[in-house]
Amino acid sequence: MAYGQEVRELLSTSSPSVWADELWTIYTGYMLAQKELGYNPHIGETFCSFKELLFFFNRLEGVIG
Fold first, then answer.
1. Residues 6 or more apart whose Cβ sits within 8 Å of residue 10
2. What are phi and psi of 40, to 5 degrees?
3. DSSP-assigned letter for residue 49
4. Can you say whether the dihedral through the CA atoms of 60, 62, 64, 65 is positive or negative?
């Protein structure tokens, strides 16, 4: 229940579609900065985390409407 409350508070600031758009903005900036940031052996894990977060907000949008 505590987890649900945290999600509810997070979503009270914006809709799931806005969160998904913001995630794309963050991820795009991160990917564009990779040349300056240098080699990252965990870039695949970062993508998987991003993908799961995006899918989470997409599912929430379907639940919330």
1. 19
2. -130, 110
3. H
4. positive
Phi and psi at residue 12, to the nearest 5°: -70, -15
Chain segment 14-42, per-residue pLDDT in tens? 888 999 999 999 999 999 999 999 999 99
pLDDT band at 49 (very low <50, low <70, confident <90, very high): very high
Q: Nearest Cα to 13, choosing from 53, 62, 57, 48?
A: 57
C-alpha span between 26 and 21 (Å, rounded): 9
- pTM of the predicted protein model: 0.74
CA distance 36 to 1: 42
Domains of the chain by residue range: 2-64
Q: Is 20 helix (H, G, I), strand (E, B) or coil?
A: helix
